[in-house]
């Protein structure tokens, strides 16, 4: 006799974790492209400062708050401004690397998705850095802003003319903010905890730090968020598999249940 039960729903197979060596080479390649791309944008100092004045004027025309308002909050104490500079200098790359490592080990499908989004965002940002060199507000005279890292430390930048590691005229978009926002979005999508929305504090704190230290304009943040939104719209996050338990099927009306035997010819 065949027992009538509903077939168990096929649980999606756990996605295969990408080969580690390939991923390390890919991430290293992206990092090198990021560095090389930023170096290609050097040598446009005059244009970068012209664009900086344009951005400052556009923000005032749009009614955006003055970046000096945020900086004045940090300047209430040396400890606070030093902590902001330290956050800017030390959290950006390690936090993003830890985010990718955790996804790789615990959520392989989300790792592939997040890596694609970050690669698309970074690539698009490098193109904009080349097309629109921009001096950060800490270099812009007449704004009342100061270079908090240079005065209070620690600083990750040297004089722009001798800096061989980074392009300081690549303020728009802010990858500090874009990567921080993607970290929060990725962890919210990949986890189920009711406290997962607290990850949004990371991009919020990053926003206050990059603006308060005069490393980025408000428009740098807005453009980074718009570019990330576009990348997320193209690359949808995967769905996490749900466990399903097969349930016995109820006997159909008018038909004997499985396992019951009727006597043939009984009562005749």
Written description of the protein model:
The radius of gyration is 27 Å and the shape is globular. The chain has 10 helices and no strands. Residues 1-13 and 258-268 have low confidence and may be disordered. With 268 residues, the chain is mainly α.
Brief overview:
With 268 residues, the protein is mainly α.
Q: Total number of β-strand segments?
A: 0
Q: How many strands, what sense, and barrel or not for the largest sheet? A: none
* Total of DSSP H or I helical runs spanning 4+ residues: 10
Structural class: mainly alpha
Distance between the termini: 25 Å
The succession of helices and strands, N to C, reads HHHHHHHHHH
Low-confidence stretches: 1-13, 258-268
**Overall average pLDDT:** 82
Compute the CA-based radius of gyration. 27 Å
Which of globular, elongated, flat, extended, rod-shaped describes the shape? globular
Helix content: 55-70%
Estimate what percentage of residues fall within beta strands.
under 5%
List keywords for this structure.
mainly alpha; 268 residues; 10 helices
What is this structure's SSE topology?
Blueprint: H1 20-40, H2 45-62, H3 67-74, H4 78-90, H5 92-106, H6 108-131, H7 148-152, H8 175-190, H9 201-212, H10 218-234
């Amino acid at each position: 006799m065949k027992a009538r039960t509903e077939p168990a729903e096929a649980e999606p197979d756990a996605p295969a974790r990408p080969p580690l060596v390939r991923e390390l080479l890919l991430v290293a390649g992206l990092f090198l492209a990021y560095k090389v791309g930023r170096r290609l944008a050097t040598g446009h100092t005059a244009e970068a400062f012209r664009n900086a004045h344009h951005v400052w004027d556009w923000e005032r025309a749009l009614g955006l708050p003055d970046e000096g308002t945020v900086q004045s909050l940090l300047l209430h104490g040396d400890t606070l401004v030093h902590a902001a500079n330290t956050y800017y200098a030390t959290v950006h790359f390690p936090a993003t690397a830890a985010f990718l490592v955790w996804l790789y080990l615990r959520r392989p499908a989300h790792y592939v998705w997040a890596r694609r989004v970050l690669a698309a965002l970074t690539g698009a940002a490098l193109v904009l850095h080349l097309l629109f060199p921009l001096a950060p507000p800490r270099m812009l005279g007449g704004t009342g802003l100061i270079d908090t890292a240079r005065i209070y430390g620690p600083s990750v930048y040297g004089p722009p003319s001798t800096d061989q590691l980074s392009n300081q005229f690549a303020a728009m978009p802010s990858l500090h903010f874009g990567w921080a926002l993607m970290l929060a979005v990725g962890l919210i999508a990949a986890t189920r905890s009711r406290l997962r929305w607290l990850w949004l504090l990371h991009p919020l704190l990053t926003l206050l730090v990059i603006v308060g230290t005069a490393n980025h304009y408000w428009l740098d943040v807005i453009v980074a968020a718009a570019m990330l939104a576009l990348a997320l719209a193209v690359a949808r996050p995967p769905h996490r598999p749900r466990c399903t338990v097969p349930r016995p099927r109820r006997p159909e009306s008018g038909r004997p249940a499985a396992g019951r035997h009727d006597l043939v010819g009984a009562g005749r």
